[in-house]
Amino acid sequence: MCGIIGIASNKPVVSNIIQSLKKLEYRGYDSAGIATFANGFIDEKKCTGRVDNLEKILFKNPSSGSIGIGHVRWATHGIPSQINAHPHSSEEVSVVHNGIIENSNEIKKDLEKKGYKFKSQTDTEVITFLLTDFLKDFDLINTINKTLKKLNGSFALGILFKKFNNLVVGARRGSPLAVGYGPEENYLGSDSYALKSMTNKITYLDDGDICLLTNNKVDFYNSKNKKINKEILTLSSEKHTAEKGHYKDFMSKEINEQNVTAKTCIKEYVDQIRRDINLYNFPIKPKEIEKIVLIGCGTAFHSCAVAKYWFEEFTNAEIEIDIASEFRYRKVQFKKKNLYIFVSQSGETADTLAALDLCKKNKVKTCSIVNVVESSIARLSDFVLPIHAGPEIGVASTKAFIGQMLVLYILAIKISEVRKELSGPVYVKKINELKKLPELIKKTLLCQDKIQVIAKDFLQARGAMFMGRGLSFPIALEGALKLKELSYLHAEGYPAGEMKHGPLALIEEGLPVVILAPKDKYFEKTISNMQEVIARGGKVILISNDNNTVTSENVRFSLEVPKSDEQLTPFIMAIPLQLLAYHVASLKNCNIDKPRNLAKSVTVE
Ligand code: M6R
Fold first, then answer.
1. CB of 538 closer than 6 A to ligand 1?
2. What is the dihedral of CA 110, 116, 122, 125, to 10 degrees?
3. Tens digit of pLDDT for each residue in 464-503?
4. Ligand 1 centroid to 298 CA: how many Å?
């Protein structure tokens, strides 16, 4: 999960490469670098930290050139350092890389025997030296294909060759790479988002493809050295902006616009006049589905975990959820009557993509729920349900979570209605309740001031726990993930009924414990679990939509959220938890949009 940009132009490219790298920082931000051709040489500049640091270096010591590549790194092999930052260059070749070369150690040994001296600890440098070595005896395309054949693993590459100083070269296997077409210049990017400000004409490379870009031409080759033609796509125009506006950071913007996210998504799927859900050309007849398997990673997996409760409530089909990194390696029994649903904001998550690929190879029906409709996951699946949330830039997923849950909820009620498991009147009632959701989210967002006060209480804490039952259990998991991801505070989410089986031992005087207790069939039981926490000194933060029922002077904070249809409580409960993580991290001066060690799009395993 690094970001790659390449530009072949007839005018200076440095400033456009820097601007694109800033857009790509969501993919990695522990180091950055650039290489251009200047005066017959490859000019390489790199630094640790953010693109701003690279900009400062270039200000003091400018680079020139009309052909260049740039990179933002999320370290896999080797610590974040200037030496390990990309590009990795020899006299002849400069390489930027996204992905992992699994056999880099063996290749390195062979190259060292030939006299190549490695400077970095990365797996990327072997690519630089393999290209340099093959170039002595082979033409350009042969050199690239011979190099790629030596590599195991997944990668996307951007390459400059001193010998071909009007070219930017790209190649991919397993990691996404796109070419963009501009006026008198062409672009290479690890995703279309980085290219969107420059062009909406895009070609996606497939595994094994190589591209050669000059300022006025793009040629494609396959792994057999044959020239191939590729389709040029016109990207959808993006109504949403990727600017912060008056917000301090993207995350606060993204949290605060969740009512709009919900409104847009509902508008896209719900026919307001017919009070029906639009779902055309679904890849499998809902009545024929025997089992639905929901797959994702991180927050996307949590949306699947919430959806399991919905599908089980509304349909008789069997429901299974799976974490993509586990699913892809298990001995799964694929069945024709199963529907496999992949949930991903970015649509590029390597594990989710690999799990989808496995399903495709086993010829079963697939559907994806994504935010980025041009993404690899969207393009590979049989059917795409976009969440219409607009670009999500903050690494912590917030509005995309709301969007993913919404599409899953919409799908659950539609499938159940078609299968006649949900009666007509109940279906219409569900749609009517759903239409109230954006307003309820807006009201919930008003709890910010109270959350700021609660957040202060977390500053002295060594950790925190989140508990809920039923639909609130996956939300507890999500609350804990948000808190650890943003504030680096240890946090765990548990089904409240599970506390006595071990986790209760963690409760000590002053430990913050967030209890999610909407007024549902679990309410009384959750409140009993809360009392058990209080009895052991836990500092309880109760979040409910019926706080009056609970009288306990030992509840430290009691936050009341708006009442909603029982099945819609996950949307409401998630918001205070996002805000809590945000404000704790903010008080601790953590980098909100770019938490340490993480990246927005996890395109490596
Ligand atoms: O792009 P995806 O939805 O596939 O990403 C999956 C996870 O990496 C992501 O949800 C991650 O857990 C978030 N940073 C959590 O906030």
1. no
2. -100
3. 999 999 999 999 999 999 999 999 999 999 999 998 899 8
4. 5
